[in-house]
Every structure is written in structure tokens, then in C-alpha cells.
Amino acid sequence: SLTLGIVGLPNVGKSTLFNALTRNDVLAANYPFATIEPNVGVVELPDARLDRLAEIFGSERILPAVVSFVDIAGIVKGASVGEGMGNQFLANIREADAICQVVRVFADDDVVHVDGRVDPFADIEVIETELILADMQTLEKALPRLEKDARKNKDLSALLDAAKKAQEILDGGKTLFSAKDSFDLSSVRELHLLTAKPFLYVFNADEGVLTDDARKEELRKAVAPADAVFLDAKVESELLELDEEDAQELLDSIGQDEPGLRQLARAGFHTLGLQTYLTAGPKEARAWTIRQGDTAPKAAGVIHTDFEKGFIKAEIVSYDDLDAAGTMNDAKAAGKVRMEGKDYVMADGDVVEFRFNV
Ligand code: GDP
């Protein structure tokens, strides 16, 4: 499954957040036979639609989708030149599908900042500079070979042009992802550049920041087009120890409607370019994870490879239509249930039953 790699400067709250991610027991509860690596934290994607489906179909249990985060050892200045943990760090990031950067915006005199001050913009720059430098090195190595190969093989000239454009963006001190509206990230996919991965920013904040909409907007703008999540990592770990009522009280006290881990799950899912579709029956109401743009047979393959191979068609009703109709029969009577073929592109909230040959 796809993962977000957690990075950030020392002492910004990565471990605190990661512990909250690993202690929520999502996998243990829902997927007892899954093996989880010690450095992987999993969080449920909240989806109230599953509760309603379970009600409509009398499902025994609910299985939400999950998002996985990998803990990547702390970055240090100089990582790109292979100092200390540098090389291993970059190798670990390369394996992640997206980069989740934790940034400190909480004030606490008892927690030392590596550079002696809380400055989220400077911190972001430190991390991004290392990633940008690493990509520049990759391109410096790749370009001479690409130039040579492109002379013989015209098919490579598009990749060469894209690589040169990427170099320009990096030279300007920007990550490729931040330029995604003017630069086609998929054009350099085979070069495995770190800053071409999607970014997500987690601002580890205190109540002062969490309730300051102008400050949040400023930070959000600074990292756009990446998603931004604001949470208090310390509170998130405390929430897991509390019953629902006390948890809500604690959230209220810092001006939050819901746990930050929920927001993180949604943003992580979005950052990875994922989407869900839903199935429901007497046994379970379940969300299945697919990529945005996946077709019906591809979606069927997530349940079982035989479903993809033997795909005939998919019986689909949009969640909203089913919710309004109240039962599957009423949805059918209202003409809301469609048969879709192999070219159908799945939409968010599709409630599906696949027909297939075995
Ligand atoms: P890491 O080095 O990035 O993994 O940071 P840690 O998670 O170890 O956190 C460093 C210190 O900051 C620890 O003493 C944490 O208890 C504290 N800390 C983490 N998150 C918060 C937060 O949101 N607020 C405050 N006040 N302290 C925090």
C-alpha cells in the first residue's frame, strides 16, 4: 500500500505524532492478520457513510480505509552530501510515496529548538533545501547520459526536456511539487526525484496557533499547493487515553472540533491521490482504496485479482442516492442503480457490487 514518509527537524514532535499513529490500534482491531512493520503507523480514514450503509444493510461490522505513515529517521543539515544519517535518510524518503513534513509552531521554552528559535518558514527551508540539493545531484548525474541517449533515441527527447525544466525549477530553489501547476510531475517519473513526490505539511501547533485563523491561513498559503494540517501532537497522544466525553472536552479546550489525526488521515489520503469506493452487505460495510481515475475492473481487483480478470460489469449506486432512497430496492425503483462496464471511471462515494466470471 502507499505510504507517507514522516520527516522534520529534531524536536518538532515527529515521535510524539508517530506514537499517536501507532497506538490507535486500527490495524490490530480490523485486520488481525496483517503484519505491521515497527516503523509504520496507520490511521483510519473517517467515513460516516459507512455507518449509514451498515444501518441500511444490517452489516455486522464496519471496515474503513486506512492511511499508512512511515517514520523516517531525523533529517540533518548536510543530508544531501551524505553526512551522518544522510544517505540512509534519502534512501528511505525515496521509498515513500509522499512526504509528510512535521513543522514546529508550538512555543515551549522547555523544548529546545535545534536552531534556537521557532521559525516554521526557516525550518521548512532547511528540509526542502536538502531534498532540492539531492535532486540536483540526481539530475547532474542523469543529464549527460540522457543527452547522449536522446541523440540516438528520439523517444527520449521529451524526458530530456522535462529533466532540463526540472533543473531550472530546482535551481530557483523550489521543489518540483510546488511547481506542479506549471510542471507536469509525471514527465520525470522515471528519474525518481524526491521533490516530485507530493508533500503534506503537519504544523505541530499549540492552542494559540490552532485558534488563530489568520496565522493558519498564512502558513497554509506558504505551503500551497501542498495540503496543510494543524494539530497539537501532544494532545493527540493524550486523546487516545481518554473516553469520548473527556476527549471532546480536551479538544474543545484547544478550540478543535475533531482529533487532528482524522484531519491527517483525510489529508494524507488526498495527498497520495487516493479515493475510496464502498461495498455493503450483511457481513460488512467497507471502504476500499483505489487511485483517483481507476476504472471499474481495476477497482474490482482491489477486492480480488479474480474480480479484475473476470470482470463483467459493476452495479453502482451513488451513496447520496442510496442514502436518500433508504433501501437498495427503493434506489432501484427510483432508477438510481446503474450498470457500468469496463471503461467506467470510479467516482468517490460509489456503492458497488461487481459481477464477474470465475
Ligand atoms: P522529534 O525529535 O521530532 O521526534 O520530537 P519529539 O516528538 O521527541 O518531541 C520533542 C519534545 O517536544 C518532547 O519533549 C515532546 O513532548 C515535545 N512536544 C511534542 N509535540 C509537542 C506539542 O505539540 N506541544 C508541546 N508543548 N510540546 C510538544
Give an overview in words:
It is a single chain. Helices cover 42% and strands 20% of the residues. With 358 residues, the chain is an alpha/beta fold. The chain has two domains: 1-47 and 64-273, P-loop containing nucleotide triphosphate hydrolases (Rossmann fold), CATH 3.40.50; 293-356, Ubiquitin-like (UB roll) (Roll). A hairpin with a 3-residue loop joins strand 8 and strand 9. Helix 5 runs antiparallel to helix 6. The longest helix is centred in the middle third of the chain and has 33 residues, at 120-152. The chain is flat and about 65 Å long. Guanosine-5'-diphosphate is lined by residues 8, 10-16, 106, 108, 111, 204, 206, 232-234.
Biggest sheet strand line-up:
2-4-1-5-6-7
Low-confidence segments, ≥5 residues, pLDDT <50?
A: none
Report the portion of residues in β strands.
Answer: 15-25%
**What's the CATH superfamily of the largest domain, by name?**
P-loop containing nucleotide triphosphate hydrolases
Number of helices: 15
Shape: flat
CATH topology of the largest domain: Rossmann fold
The molecules bound to the chains, other than polymers, are:
guanosine-5'-diphosphate
Mean pLDDT: 90
In CATH terms, what is the architecture of the largest domain? 3-Layer(aba) Sandwich
Major β-sheet, in short? Answer: 6 strands, mixed
Task: Please provide the ordered H/E string of secondary-structure elements.
Answer: EHHEHEEHEHHEHHEHHHEEHHEHHEE
Counting structural domains, the number is 2
Q: Helicity range of the residues? A: 40-55%
User: What is the CATH level 1 assignment of the largest domain?
Assistant: Alpha Beta
The tally of beta strands, per DSSP, is 12
Indicate the radius of gyration in whole angstroms.
23 Å
